Amino acid sequence: MIIEPKIRGFICTTAHPVGCATNVQRQIDHVQVKGPLDSSRKRVLVIGCSTGYGLASRIVTTFGAGADSVGVSFEKEPTESKTASPGWYNNRAFEKRAKAAGRTAVTVEGDAFSDTIKADTIAQIREHLGQVDLVVYSLASPVRTDPETGTVYRSAIKPMHSVVHSKTLNTSTGEVSEVEVQPATDEEAEATVKVMGGEDWERWIAALSKAGVLADDFTTLNYTYLGSELTWPIYHKGTLGHAKADLDRAAAAIREAHGPESAFVVALKAVVTQASSAIPVVPLYGTLLLRVMDEMGLEEGCIEHIDRLFRVKLQKPVALDDDHRVRVDDWELSDTVQKEMTTRWDKLSTDTLPNLGDLERHREEFLKLFGFGIGGVDYSADVDPRTIG
Ligand SMILES: NC(=O)c1ccc[n+]([C@@H]2O[C@H](COP(=O)([O-])OP(=O)(O)OC[C@H]3O[C@@H](n4cnc5c(N)ncnc54)[C@H](O)[C@@H]3O)[C@@H](O)[C@H]2O)c1
C-alpha cells in the first residue's frame, strides 16, 4: 500500500516503515560522525526506548559508547493493511543495525508499568547482559495501571490551583489564539503523579536490585523538563511539573539506598516528540524556540541533545545544580535565548508567527516522528506495512 500521514489532532495514526528506519539511521550517523565517546557504562537498560529521548539514549550509548542494551517500549503491531506505531519500526531498525555492528540488542514490547514486563525484562538482562550499569527511564505515558491495586490512573495536563490564560497554537491551521485552562482537581493532580512521578521508576530499580541484575556502581537517569516562565503556568507549576518534582524525591530515595552517584534527574530541552505535542502552549513555544535557537546556532534535536548529555555532561566529575540535577537545558534557558523568546512571545499573533517562529519546520519535525518527509525515501512506492527497514 501507499502509506501517507493521517493526522488526527496532535497524533498521526500512520507511520512509514522505511521513513522510520531512515530516521534511526540518520541518528546513528550523527553519533558515528562525532566518534567514540568515553563511557564505562557498557550494559544499558532503556525504559521507553522506541522514540524521542529514549531512542536517542539507546543510539548514543550503543553507537557512541559501544554498549549492549535491553530496551522496553509499548507498541502497536502492523497488519497487512495497517501500519504499526513508529516505535515498532524504530525498535526493529535499531536492533538490525546494532546487531550488524556486533552489539547485543534485545527489546521487550509491552506495558513497562506492569510486573510481568519487569519480570520479562529481568529475564532478558540475565540472559543477554548479566547485569546493567546504566538504566535510562524515559517513559512518557498518559495512563498507568498500578500493578498492586489494578487502579487505572490518567494524567491531566492542567494548572495546579488557578485558571491559566495563555497564547496557544493550532499547528494544523497556524492560528494563534488565547486558551483558558481550568485548574486540576486534587484527584487529577495526584493521578498525574501516579503516572509521571517517580513511583514506577523506584519500582523498576527495586525489582532490578532484588533480582541482582544491577551492577554495584550502576547509575539510573530520569528525564525532566523545567522550562522557563513562558511555559511554567501550564508545565512546571502545573500538574506535570508537580509529577516531575516527585522524580527529585524518588532520585533522593534511590541515592539513599544505592549511593550518591546512583540516580540523577536530568533536565532536557523542549523538542518535538509525540509526548510534547500533546501539551497545550508547548507547540507554540517550540515553534518559536526552533527559530530562535537555530538563528543562534544552538538548535538541537533529540539525538544532538542526548549526544551532548553523554559526551559532555555525564563525564566525571558530573556537575549538578542545587537540586542535584544534571542540566542539559542550559542553552535553552540561557539569558540570551530566553530574552529573545520573551520579546517574540509578546508580539505573537497569527499574522506575526511566520516571521517570529518556524511553523513549517515544526510540522516537518512532527511528521518525521512518524517516518514522513525524510529525504531519500520514495513515498510513492508500494510498501508492505510489515516491512522492517
Ligand atoms: N519532549 C520534550 O520536549 C521533553 C523535554 C524534557 C524532558 N522530556 C522527558 O523525556 C521523557 C521521554 O519523553 P519523550 O518526549 O521522548 O516521549 P516519547 O513519546 O517520544 O517517548 C515515550 C516512550 O515511552 C514509551 N512508553 C509509553 N508508555 C509506555 C508503557 N506503558 N510501557 C512501555 N513503554 C511505554 C513509548 O513506547 C516511547 O518509547 C519523558 O519523561 C519526558 O517528560 C521530554
Read across the widest sheet, the strand sequence of neighbours is 5-4-3-6-11-12-13
Helix content percent band? 40-55%
- The radius of gyration is 20 Å
Number of strands: 13
Structural class: alpha/beta
Sheet bearing the most strands, described?
A: 7 strands, parallel
How many separate helices?
13
Please report which band the strand proportion falls in: under 5%, 5-15%, 15-25%, 25-35%, 35-45% or over 45%: 15-25%
CATH architecture: 3-Layer(aba) Sandwich
**Count of domains:** 1
Bound molecules: nicotinamide-adenine-dinucleotide
Question: What's the order of the H and E elements?
Answer: EEHEHEHEHEEEEEHHEHEHHHEHHH
What CATH first level would be assigned?
Answer: Alpha Beta
Q: Averaged pLDDT, please?
A: 97
CATH homologous superfamily - what is it? NAD(P)-binding Rossmann-like Domain
Q: What is the CATH fold-level name? A: Rossmann fold
Poorly predicted spans: none
Shape label: globular
Q: What is the rounded distance between the termini?
A: 16 Å
GO molecular function: enoyl-[acyl-carrier-protein] reductase (NADH) activity; NAD binding; trans-2-enoyl-CoA reductase (NADH) activity
EC number: 1.3.1.9
Pfam families: Eno-Rase_FAD_bd (PF07055), Eno-Rase_NADH_b (PF12242), Enoyl_reductase (PF12241)
Organism: Devosia pacifica
